[in-house]
């Protein structure tokens, strides 16, 4: 009797990475204003993580968390809400704030991904404890979630949205610095600023970390 085919032994990590990115891009197609956002957040996160001296395994896990950080928006969030050209109403805001928990439900129990659950669930916590979903504060927020929070916010600022134009890099950096010790881990903001000096024109592709 032939042995069951062990597909895991034949999969190249790059194949898995590309498969995940296709799924993420399918989500981004629904939101015309965030196309490419996930990849940029991953690249910025890894630039910060590399400057912080994270190990290869930590960088791989950081990359996975960054790639999947918004995947919960695929569950129960309409295109109208994603692309609304004005501030969300209270109901829509609640639905949007549920996306870290929905992402957690998608990956909880998956053997090779469940360890990144805290990263995905807590990337909207704030350094001062006013974030969501758990109102964690300063270093009680998982490190990878703090990194992705900074990368996510910076890319959102320098990208156009349905309700506002993009900021310049200089404007976004000034806003990030202003929010140190309130919204963001101050040390990670400093690493972001240093990373921007290293990458003045465009971010390199860090997907080989996966």
UniProtKB/TrEMBL annotation:
It comes from the Bacteria. Signal peptide: none annotated. Residues 12-208 form the HD-GYP domain. Residues 34-157 form the HD domain. SMART domains: HDc. PANTHER family: CYCLIC DI-GMP PHOSPHODIESTERASE PA4108 (PTHR43155:SF2), CYCLIC DI-GMP PHOSPHODIESTERASE PA4108-RELATED (PTHR43155). This is HD domain-containing protein.
